């Protein structure tokens, strides 16, 4: 198990490092830098790419928690089989192109980003290699399975607490505003309520994408007959877009949350449920 690990050829590490870099850019309101990183992720991790195929194999091992040992061992076995079906030459070529894009479009410093589960990702990379002895393979499999089943009671309790809190929070908003929440509003609330668990990373990503969606919808809404014919409506729409843009440099608090939720409702009413 002393094979040298090349993190630039570790598909999952690069993916996690890019996610972290995008989050930092978002927090610093570096819109253009964030856009470049997101474009790189979308370009190289498309569903039909070898990189995405291998990433799924990694994620099946490092994202699974609260599993029993038998199920974890079966997942490890299936992940190894799936990874062998990834075209090695195509994967190497795509990794090379990804590394080049990261170096040129963003910065080589991305590869120095701290990824908390780096050791696990390195272990999985070794497991997927064909250079290990049978003994080393069995030992690595055992370590990975131990990680997959670690702290199961605590995770289960957290999930139960999250579910109760989310339901209560949604109930409170329903009562306050006198009508049922939209699905996108419930999703936003869920991310907001549980944001303490991952330092609000998932919330920030969801909110960023949702604001971009709402902004595009409002921009398009200016050509809707009911809005276009009303100067006051046009002016209000522009002000809302400006407000949404200002959130890129603002901390996420309940004020931001309520504004986005009201905008979600407004967009729904403008289009009357039509997403086209």
What does this structure look like?
The protein has 276 residues and is an all-alpha fold. It folds into two domains: 7-150, no CATH class; 153-271, no CATH class. Helices cover 73% and strands 0% of the residues. It is built from 13 helices and no strands. The protein has helices at residues 11-27, 31-44, 50-62, 69-84, 88-106, 118-128, 134-149, 152-177, 183-193, 201-221, 225-228, 231-246, 254-271. The chain is elongated and about 75 Å long. 20% of the residues are buried. Mean pLDDT is 80; it is low at 152-162.
The portion of residues forming beta strands comes to under 5%
The quaternary state of the protein chains shown equals single chain
User: What structural class do the secondary elements suggest?
Assistant: mainly alpha
Counted beta strands? 0
Order of helices and strands: HHHHHHHHHHHHH
Integer count of domains: 2
Identify the overall geometry.
elongated
Q: C-alpha Rg, in Å?
A: 22 Å
Given as residue ranges, the uncertain stretches (5+ residues, pLDDT < 50) are 152-162
The helix content, as a percent range, equals over 70%
Mean pLDDT, all residues: 80
Largest sheet: none
């Amino acid at each position: 198990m002393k094979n040298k690990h090349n993190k630039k050829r570790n598909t999952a590490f690069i993916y996690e490092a890019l996610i972290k870099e995008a989050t930092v850019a978002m927090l610093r309101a570096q819109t253009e830098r964030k856009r470049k990183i997101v474009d790189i992720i979308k370009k190289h991790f498309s569903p039909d790419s070898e990189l995405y195929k291998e990433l799924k194999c990694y994620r099946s091992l490092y994202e699974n928690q609260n599993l029993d040992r038998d199920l974890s061992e079966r997942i490890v076995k299936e992940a190894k089989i799936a990874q062998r079906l990834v075209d090695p030459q195509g994967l190497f070529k795509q990794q090379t192109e990804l590394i080049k894009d990261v170096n040129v479009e963003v910065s080589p410093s991305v590869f120095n980003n701290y990824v908390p589960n780096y050791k696990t990702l390195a272990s999985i990379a070794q497991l997927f290699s064909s250079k290990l002895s049978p003994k080393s393979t069995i030992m690595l499999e055992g370590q990975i399975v131990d990680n997959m089943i670690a702290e199961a009671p605590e995770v289960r309790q957290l999930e139960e607490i999250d579910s109760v809190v989310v339901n209560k929070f949604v109930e409170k908003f329903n009562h306050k505003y006198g009508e049922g929440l939209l699905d996108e509003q419930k999703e936003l609330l869920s991310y907001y309520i549980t944001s303490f668990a991952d330092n609000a990373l998932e919330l920030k990503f969801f909110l960023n994408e949702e604001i971009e969606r709402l902004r595009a919808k409002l921009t398009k809404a200016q050509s809707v007959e009911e809005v276009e014919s009303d100067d006051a409506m046009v002016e209000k729409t522009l002000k809302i877009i400006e407000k949404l843009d200002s959130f890129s440099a603002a901390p996420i608090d309940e004020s931001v949350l309520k504004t986005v939720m009201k905008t979600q409702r407004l967009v729904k009413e403008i289009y009357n449920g039509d997403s086209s």
